[in-house]
């Protein structure tokens, strides 16, 4: 039993350092080439949200350019973009590769400040609030979370920004993220080392660790970076179930690659070259003649049909 509790004791000791590290580790998900230092304004207030308050997000005429190095040319990625995500709404961002989907999530997490326009959270410009307090309210679920050379209990408990996680809490969130059975099947259970020196986790397992962390963090806003690598259908449906579970009561933004997984989003934003070209539900967007969404959908359907025929042909040989 001691092996299980040691990592949780460490959690307590590391608590103060961890608060900042959690934010840094989540920022690592964005894999920035050139991280930019974002400075808070003097005496910037904390973002304070009441327990039952939900988040409304408004992008108001936002433009943004990357600049690889000082004095290098600026590359405009987001161009005069405006949209609103209502409290508790589930919104997906879709569009061809490189149109700026992840950039929108980075701007919301305030890894960069916008060049023009503003991002408002419940009417307050996020550039005017303390960045740490903003990030505390945003959870990120990806297939590539930062993992530490420590036990699985530590890696999950690490997601908790506001208080020390107890083993009971870690077990509880692991059940909700459908990773508990996998953990207890390991010889050392919750004391199993992961990371480079421990058990290698698959994409689906990492995603579940990321979900468990997010449940513990209990944020008002969830950003889902949809898995790009394929998961088997049981794993995929378990993960979708867990993601649905943690989406409830929160405002959610999904960076989507496969349209089939975001068909039931409340709103789908279609980006093209950094501008919003279409917005609506899946059914609305399929009705747009010569629409970008419709053409992406048809293209993905053709690829999926082709894969199915190839699999069928393989099973015959
Ligand atoms: P994908 O679907 O391939 O993940 P995306 O729509 O999420 O793409 P972004 O990652 O937001 O696209 O990138 C938008 C554009 O900005 C791309 O042309 C990309 O090369 C460029 N870009 C992204 N990150 C940086 C950076 N740190 N510095 C400079 N340019 C960048």
UniProtKB/TrEMBL annotation:
It is found in: Membrane. It comes from the Eukaryota. Residues 57-298 form the ABC transporter domain. Belongs to the inositol phosphokinase (IPK) family. This is Uncharacterized protein. It comes from Adineta steineri. The chain holds residues 543 to 859 of 937 of the full protein.
């Amino acid at each position: 039993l001691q092996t299980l509790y040691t990592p949780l004791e460490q959690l307590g000791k590391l608590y103060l350092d961890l608060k900042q590290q959690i934010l840094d580790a989540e920022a690592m998900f964005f894999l920035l080439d050139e991280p930019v230092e974002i400075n808070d304004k003097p005496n910037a207030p904390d973002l304070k949200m009441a327990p039952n308050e939900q988040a409304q997000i408004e992008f108001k005429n936002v433009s943004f350019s990357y600049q690889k190095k000082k004095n290098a040319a600026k590359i405009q990625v987001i161009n005069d973009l405006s949209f609103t995500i209502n409290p508790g709404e589930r919104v997906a961002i879709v569009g061809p590769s490189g149109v700026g989907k992840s950039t929108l999530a980075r701007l919301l997490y305030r890894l960069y400040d916008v060049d023009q326009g503003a991002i408002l959270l419940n009417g307050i410009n996020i550039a005017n609030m303390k960045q740490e307090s903003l990030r505390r309210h945003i959870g990120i679920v990806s297939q590539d979370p930062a993992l530490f050379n420590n036990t699985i209990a530590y890696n999950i408990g690490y997601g908790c920004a506001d208080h020390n996680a107890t083993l009971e809490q870690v077990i509880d969130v692991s059940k909700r993220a459908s990773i508990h059975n996998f953990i207890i099947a390991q010889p050392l259970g919750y004391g199993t080392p992961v990371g480079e020196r421990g058990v290698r986790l698959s994409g689906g397992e990492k995603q579940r660790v990321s979900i468990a962390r997010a449940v513990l963090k209990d944020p008002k806003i969830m950003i889902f970076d949809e898995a790009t690598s394929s998961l088997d259908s049981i794993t995929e449906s378990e993960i979708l179930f867990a993601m649905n579970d943690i989406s409830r009561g929160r405002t959610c933004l999904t960076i989507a690659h496969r349209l089939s997984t975001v068909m039931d989003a409340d709103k789908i934003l279609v980006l093209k070259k950094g501008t919003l070209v279409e917005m609506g539900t899946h059914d609305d967007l399929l009705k747009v003649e010569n629409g970008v969404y419709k053409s992406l959908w048809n293209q993905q359907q053709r690829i999926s049909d082709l894969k199915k025929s190839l699999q069928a042909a393989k099973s015959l040989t």
